[in-house]
Amino acid sequence: MAYFINVILPIPLERHFTYSVSLEEAELLKTGMRVAVPFGKSKIYTGLVESVHSTPPEIYEAKDIHEVLDEHPIVAPIQFRHWQWIADYYMCTLGEVMRSALPGAFLLESETLVLRNENAPVDELSLKDDEFLIFEALQHQSTLKIQEIAAIIDRKNALPVLQRLLEKKAIRLKEEVYEQYKPKLVRYVRLTDVYADDQKLEKLLQSLSRAPKQSQVVLAVFQLQGNSKKPISVADLEKSANVSRAIIKSLVDKDILEEYFIQKDRINYERIGEKSPSKGLNEHQEKALADINENFEKQKVTLLKGITSSGKTEVYVKLIESYIEKGKQVLYLLPEIALTTQLIARLRDYFGEKISVYHSKYNVQERVEVWNNVLSGEPKAQIVIGARSAMLLPFNHLGLIIVDEEHESSFKQFDPAPRYHARDAAIVLGSLHGANIILGSATPSIESFHNAQTRKYGYAEINRRYGNVLLPDVELVDIKEAHRKKRMKGHFSERLLEEINKTLEAGEQVILFQNRRGYAPILECSTCGHTPQCPNCDVSLTYHQYRKQLRCHYCGHHTALPENCQACGSPELDTKGFGTEQIEQEVKALFPDVKVGRMDLDTTRGKHGYEKIITAFEQQEIAILIGTQMLTKGLDFRNVNLVGVMNADALLNFPDYRAHERSFQLLTQVAGRAGRTKKRGKVIVQSYNPYHQILKQVSTGDYKGMYAEQLYEREQYKYPPVNRIIKITFKHKNYNVLNEAADWFCNALKTNFGGNVLGPEYPPVARIRNQYLKHLMIKMDKRETIGRTKLNIKRIEKSFHAISMYRSVRVIYNVDHI
C-alpha cells in the first residue's frame, strides 16, 4: 500500500502538494513536522506536514521527500486552524502565513553547490578566461557556492558563466540543505571521579607543586564546588582562578579535569534581587479589575479605557498573576519594540524568569529558542511579551491575551503577506484557545469603542490618573501669527522656549515630538526650484545631515549631498520642511550646555538601540529627548514635565479617512508622557490652525466628542466601523499596462458590487522601486457575508489572470485596510 503526505510550502501557492513516503516515514510523520521536499526543477524547500494519507494525486505523479527534519511537531494543531483563518480572512495563501509565522532558521532552503564533472573530459584551451578561473578553483576545492564563484570572477551575476560551463560539461550542480539553527553550548568542567576523595586530591596538589597556575585552577574548582552545587563554567573558572584557558585545557588533556557541555538559551530574563510584590490597586483600578473579571465570566473580549498614567499596567499585572497561578500562558502584545524595554524591567521584578520576549530585533537563533520554549510549555515562557509576530507562536495553554495600546496602526502588517491585524487575529486566537482577551488604551480605536458601545465587547474604565495627578495642561500656540510677527527662533515659538527654560531650571526633562525623521524632507535649488528625486520612486529625497546624504525612505536609495544644483549648476541649495535631525541641531544651538538625545528609526537600528536611549533618559543623562511617534506609545518617564509638539498640522492634513482619529490619538498619547508623578505636566502644541476641532478636543481630553463626530462622518461615507473595507493594489513596471489592468478589474468589480467600488486611483506616491501602483477600494456592508464577497473577487482575479497581457500585474489584497 502506498502512503502520501500533504505538504504546505512557504511560497504563495493556493494549494498544498502531495509527496510519496515509505511505510516507516508514514508511521513516524505527524501533522506539524517539517520535511525537506524537492520542488520545481532542482530546488529543495522546507514543507510542513498537513496530513498523512493513502490517496495518490490525480494530476501529477508524487515525488519522494528528501528527508524528515523533525522528531516532533513544531507547530501545534490549534496553530494550523489559526493560520487557516488568517489565510482565508486576509485573502492570502497558507504558505505565506507559514513563512511569516516560522522563524527563518526553520525554513531551510537548499543552496546550489558547484562541483567538477569528473566523468567528462574537458578541453582547458576551449575555456574562456572567467570559465577557466572557476575550473581552476575547483581543482583545489571540491565544492564552491554561487557567491564564492561571483567573488572569484568579480561579477555580480555568475549564472551566465556557469551556464556555459554546464553546456561544456565541465561542472555539475548539486542542491544541499543546511540546518541554520545551532544550539548554544556552554563549556563546563569538573574534577574527574579519580580525584573524588581527599587523599587523591592532596596527592594531586603535591604533584602540581611545580605548576602553581595549574594548582591554582584545581583549588578554584574545589572552592567553587564547595560553595554551591551549580556546574562550573570555564568562563567562571577562568575569572575565579585568574588564569588563561590554555592552562584549563592542559588540565583537561591530563584527565585531571573533565569537560562537558550544557545547552543554554541565548537570552534569559532573571530576577534582579528579591521578588517584588505587585502594587496595591487604588479604588478606580479595583473597580476596573472587577468589571474586567465580570466580563471574562461572560466570555467577552473586554476593552479597558484608562487615561494616560492611570495605572493600566498594574491591572494587567494582577490579571497575569491569577492566570500564572492556574498554570496558563499569557501573551502580552505591544505595538512597538521600544515599549518592551520598559515593560520587561517592570514585569521581571514581579515574575522573574517566567518571561520570554519575541520580536524582529532578535536574531533567528534567539527566536527559535523562544519558539521551542513556548511549544514545550517551559516555565521561562509562561509570559510572552512581543510585537505583532509574537501572536503567531505555538501556544498550548494560552489563558490570557493582553493587547496594549490596541488603537495603534503598528499592529497591522503591511508588507509582505499576510497583511493581518494582530489585534483582530489575537481575538480569534483567544477564541480558539478559550482564552480571555483584554484590549487596553487611553484612546481606543473607533471600531473597538463602537464594539464596546454596542455591547459586543465588555467595557471597563479608569478615568483618574494614579495618585490623583491632574492630566497635563494642553496649550495651543498659533505659529502662523508668531511667524508673521517674526517671533520664532527656528521652529520654536517664544512660548515653547520659555517653558523649556522653566522646565530645565527646575531639573526636569523635556520631550519634543516631530513625526518626521531626517533633517529636511526636501532640498530645493533657490535659483531654478529643482528638487532631487529618487530614481526608483515618485518621491523627493530626504536630506540627512548626519550622513551628509539624500535618502529615499521608500526604497533606501541614497546619494551624497550635491554641492551644486543638478539642473542649473547653482550652489544655492535650500531645505524645505524639517525633521528630528534639524530640531536636534536647533536645540543644541539654543541650549549648548544641555544633553540632547534623539529617538527615531535612524538612531534605534541596532538590537539594543531603543534600550540605550530609554535607559539614558530614565537615568536623566539626557535632559531633552526629540523623537518620532515611537516616543508616544505608553512609555513611562517619571521626570518629564514638558512635552512640545513641533507641528500638529502635518498629522491633521493627511489624505486618509482616519487622519483625525489618528491625530487625536497621537497627540493625546504624546501629551500623556508629561507630568506622570506628582506635579501637573505641561503640553505645548504648535500649529498654524490652533482652532481646528481635533486640537480643541485634545486640549480638553474630549474623546467621546471626537468619537461621536468621527462615527457620524463614517456612517455618512460608509467607512469602518459601519462598513468593511478591502483595498486592492495593482503593481506593474509598465504604466500603460497597469492602467488598462486596473480599469478592467474595476469594471468587473462594479458589475458585481455596484457603486461601492472606489477608484482606481494613484496613491500620493505612485511609483515605488520602479513599480507603478494603483488602488481600488471596496466598501462592504457589515450585513453582507464577507466570504461570498471574497469568492467573487477571487473569481474575477482568475479571469483577470487568464488575459495574457495582465498575467504579470501583481494583485495585492489588504482586508480591513487601515
Which of globular, elongated, flat, extended, rod-shaped describes the shape? globular
Structural classification: alpha/beta
Our estimate of the beta-strand percent is: 15-25%
The count of domains is 7
Unreliable segments of 5+ consecutive residues: none
Topology, number of strands:
37
CATH topology of the largest domain: Rossmann fold
Strand order of the largest sheet: 15-16-14-17-18-13-19
Major sheet attributes: 7 strands, parallel
Distance from first to last alpha carbon: 52 Å
CATH superfamily of the largest domain: P-loop containing nucleotide triphosphate hydrolases
Task: Please identify the top-level CATH class of the largest domain.
Answer: Alpha Beta
Indicate the percent of residues in helices.
Answer: 25-40%
What is Rg? 31 Å
In short:
This protein is α/β, with parallel strands linked by helices and 818 residues long.
Structural overview:
By secondary structure, this protein is an alpha/beta fold. It has seven domains: 3-106, GIY-YIG endonuclease (3-Layer(aba) Sandwich), CATH 3.40.1440.60; 111-176; 193-255, no CATH class; 283-466, 3-Layer(aba) Sandwich (Rossmann fold), CATH 3.40.50.300; 473-517 and 580-712, 3-Layer(aba) Sandwich (Rossmann fold), CATH 3.40.50.300; 520-577, no CATH class; 723-815, Ribosomal protein S10 (Alpha-Beta Plaits, 2-Layer Sandwich), CATH 3.30.70. It is built from 26 helices and 37 strands. The strands form nine sheets. Strands 15-16-14-17-18-13-19 form a seven-stranded parallel β-sheet, with helices on both faces. Helix 14 (364-375) links the parallel strand 15 (355-358) and strand 16.
